[in-house]
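Re: Re: ligand-bound prediction request (bumping)

Still looking for help on this. To restate: I need the protein modeled with NAI bound, output as structure tokens. Inputs repeated here so nobody has to scroll up.
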Amino acid sequence: MIIEPRTRGFICLTAHPKGCEQNVLNQIEYIKERPVKEGPKKVLVIGASTGFGLASRITSAYGSGAATIGAFFEKPPKKGRTASPGWYNSAAFEAQAHKDGLYAKSINGDAFSNEIKAETIDLIKQDLGEIDLLIYSLASPVRTHPDSGERFKSVLKPIGKTFTNNTVDFHTGEVKEISIEPCNEEEIENTVTVMGGEDWQMWIDQLKAAGVLSENFKTVAYSYIGSSLTEAVYRNGTIGKAKDHLEATAFKITDSLNDINGKAYVSVNKALVTQASSAIPVIPLYISLLYKVMKAEGTHEGCIEQIERLFNARLYAENLDLDEAGRIRIDDWEMRDAVQAKVLELWKQATTETLPEIGDLKGYETDFFNLFGFKVEGVDYDEDVEEVVNVPSIKE
Ligand code: NAI
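Reply:
Sorry for the wait, this slipped through. Here it is.
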């Protein structure tokens, strides 16, 4: 079928298999030129199909030849209905990895559940014996708790008082003020339950009990801090509480891994356009100004550049360069004073009229469509393509 983007708000309902494939191949090429010396060999990535998780899978496989198991929650295609982009990404990744002689298998389902954890452990036992790296890159608005069966929803709200600031609708370019009412206590707890560290800890506990973690095992989860412009709704808001919990969990996990000399880290990453971040109010305006500033100074990075730097300059380098709270920082270029000062200055000037000039709205929009395999260079969108594409290791 001929596949075109069909957007609704901050999501796109269709995805293009060839565009997703091209995105994956571009990331693979990037990593092939930047091998990771003494990198990981057997890797599990939770949230492996898009964004930072996909980049982590590609960096593991093509940086140091790692066998990868990727877990994710994606919608498979049907005749006449496209899959979600993470499905097409994973199909393309696996197909290419297999061609290149790399082990790659995937598990599609709810990673919060005990069933998916058990299935993953069985697969590790059967095929790899153990893993030496687990990347936890899950971003989800909901979680069904595996013990109680209760379903929790996260919210993106400020705490304590109403937050009013500008945001942009990147489809229309309209800059407008929004107000977000503060959350209640229960919403904080629910957001922590969904996006905090409990599930990460459960994964590690169950993997360890099954005896599938190697000596010197490492695990990394991703966090965000960001600027004073977004802090009321992000770092000091409900999601920030969840990130505080995730960061505290890293220390608990490290304690629990003493006997195998295991370590858990949180890496604070840069703000980037992903499906998760497009849903957060105010972030799109911040990102379009940030991109403009960082592209102008030549320090802009996407997910693959970020994760390559995480592996090569931190995780598998001499010095992790941890901050005062024990976190890895690859948001260091975003957080430089000069960059933040420029973004703040531009923020004051940003209106519907000025944004196309002072911000990188085009870059934001292109990145957004790229997430779904659209507007990707070298792809012929007039071509009739097969929408039913399999992930080789997933049996229907
Ligand atoms: P994303 O939306 O691109 O990826 C989310 C991944 O989680 C996908 O692979 C999806 O299939 C998987 N997933 C969602 N629910 C699942 C479930 N129930 N079971 C199994 N898999 C599930 O998100 P992104 O942006 O790459 O986020 C990953 C992590 O990075 C998050 O913790 C996020 O907070 C963090 N981060 C994101 C930043 C950004 O600007 N995008 C910046 C810094 C950190």
